[in-house]
Design goal:
Organism: Geodermatophilus amargosae
CATH superfamily of the largest domain: GAF domain
Protein name: ANTAR domain-containing protein
Order of helices and strands: HHEEHHEHHEEHEEHHHH
Shape: globular
Number of helices: 11
Structural class: alpha+beta
Number of domains: 2
Helix content: 55-70%
Strand order of the largest sheet: 2-1-5-4-3
CATH topology of the largest domain: Beta-Lactamase
Length: 244
């Protein structure tokens, strides 16, 4: 049996507990972690510059790693997206290339290796698959050819389900994944800073990232606090100006 055939069986099995169509990305992430020699997986889209939308993760550590990359604004997945090629990073590489991301990764997760693959076809330039390893497992255990075969199957599955389950006739249901809904809070918080502090979207995101990093929070957590009014926007601006 090929790895793609094993993957299809694993996706079908995951559908027993994750039957809702918007949970397709989580089913795919779990299947990736099951059939490949990795300890976790996550799938995301980039719908604009620096706008990363998580769709699904295999487990809490993989979900945390995604949020930490987004908070730091750097990491293997962002580089895979920017460069359009796979990134294979062991702990030494992560520490040297993406130190801000590394600091959070080693303090908040057991993950020490990441393989990030851009997705292809209609998800080319916007989709990515992250695969995570935990010691004693490492990135050298994974066949890149197998990983690329699985990433192609992920894209194919998204395409098939997107055509079959479109909502409002224009977007596939799996874009309503719970993790994507949670990330939308960040865009709301950016909008608050846009309108009340008269800053650009890129500056608003930079302000939020700086405060999240300084406070040890991830960006999604901070955004929720901003939207709920727990953190005055003026305080964020002052903290940003002081650090500049």
């Amino acid at each position: 049996m090929t790895v793609v055939e094993e993957f299809r069986i694993a996706v079908a099995a995951a559908g027993v507990d994750l039957a809702a169509p918007e949970l397709l990305p989580e089913r795919l992430a779990r299947a990736c972690a099951q059939v490949l020699p990795v300890d976790g997986a996550g799938i995301c889209l980039f719908f604009a510059e620096d706008r990363r939308l998580p769709l699904g993760a295999s487990d809490p550590a993989a979900s945390t790693a995604e949020r930490l990359q987004f908070t730091a604004g750097s990491g293997p997945c962002l580089s895979a997206h920017a460069e359009g090629r796979p990134q294979v990073a062991d702990e030494v590489t992560i520490r040297s290339r993406w130190p801000a991301f590394y600091d959070g990764l080693v303090t908040r997760t057991p993950i020490r290796g990441i393989i990030s693959l851009p997705l292809g076809d209609e998800l080319r330039d916007i989709g990515a698959l992250d695969l995570y390893t935990v010691p004693p497992n490492d990135v050298t255990a994974l066949s890149l050819a197998d990983a690329l075969d699985i990433s192609a199957e992920v894209t194919s599955t998204f395409r098939a389900h997107g055509q079959a389950t479109r909502r409002h006739s224009d977007t596939p249901v799996w874009l309503d994944a719970p993790s994507a809904e949670r990330r939308s809070i960040v865009w709301q918080a950016m909008g608050f800073l846009n309108s009340r502090l008269d800053v650009s979207s890129s500056d608003a995101l930079a302000i939020l990232r700086a405060h999240a990093y300084g406070s040890g929070e991830d960006l999604d957590q901070l955004a929720r606090r901003v939207v709920d009014g727990e953190i005055p926007l003026e305080r964020l601006a002052l903290d940003h100006d002081s650090a500049s």
